[in-house]
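<context>
A single protein, sequence plus fold
<entry> Chain with its tokenised backbone below
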Amino acid sequence: MRKPGTYNQGRTFISFGVQRAGLFLVFCWMASVRLSAQDLSFSQYFHAPLLVNPANTGFIPDHDYRIGGNYRNQWASVGTPYRTMGAWADTKLFGDRFETGWMGIGGSLLRDEAGSGTLVGNTAMLSLAYHQMVGYKSLVSAGFGAGFTNKRIDISRLNFDNQWNGKFFDVGIPNNEPFNFSSVYYFDLQAGLNYAWFASDRAYFNMGISVQHLNRPRESFFANNASDYRIDPRFNLFLNASFKLQDLWIINPNVYISKKGTATETVLGMVGQRDLTGDGSNQLIAGLYLRNGDAVIPVLGYEINTIRFTINYDATISSLRNLNGTRGAYEISVIKQGVFPTASGRSIKCPTVRF
């Protein structure tokens, strides 16, 4: 994951040192072992549900399908930006065959570009989930995901310590690094569980846990005898709630914790939705989040009918603010929800907090 002070800081110093200052850096090892082994993440994790937990697939209580997109741009103030892009969609299945449950199917495409394309990752993931009502107010969900990832590196754009001739990096000097691949592929598995409690039409609580890289795939650009790096499992936990206030506001406090190896990321905060029209068709969205030890994240957005636009800005509060002037990242997400037309109408099997 992009843990503050490890992954983001590492990529920033690589860009700043190699591309701008020509500092003496051992880029190869960090690129092939540390950086390529990190996972994608968004500050608006609640708007990337399939990335967080496959049990979220098809968890759309009052709609039939969702389509979403995410874009993140970071560290532009200290070099070439690092971009993360995602597109995803999911839908319900067999709602008419199960009296108190349904299935969900979804897919996501993710791309990460480090610097000027030196390190690029692409992932395609398919996920399935089953959602079962327990009584009238509880819902239990289980999901599973499988996909492929490709990571590639342009070695010609890299400079290494033994290519420093005392004045500049001389690309004519052999780098003597044990590169064996410039592109790697691997199969990846993930699984998750969710629990939702619909306390009333004004209060809702939800929690979920997931694990990624269940099969610990190998990811290295070096030969097997030089490096057999296996990706550590990544554990994600989220807790969120929704409360309706005076028929004008819905507030959503939530927290997200992700742990991989020795790195831990915690994001907590709240977003509110203000009904502007009386029927929920137009809503103003505003919120504030904190990534522990790294950034303050204000969020603004607007929802019209079934389309939601949100943007956030990560203002760095760690020691890295001296390097980037507090300018960490910005992120945009778009989500469209909808209902399939049917001749016999449709029924909602579980309540939800809404305008």
Notes: The first strand starts at residue 65 and ends at 74.
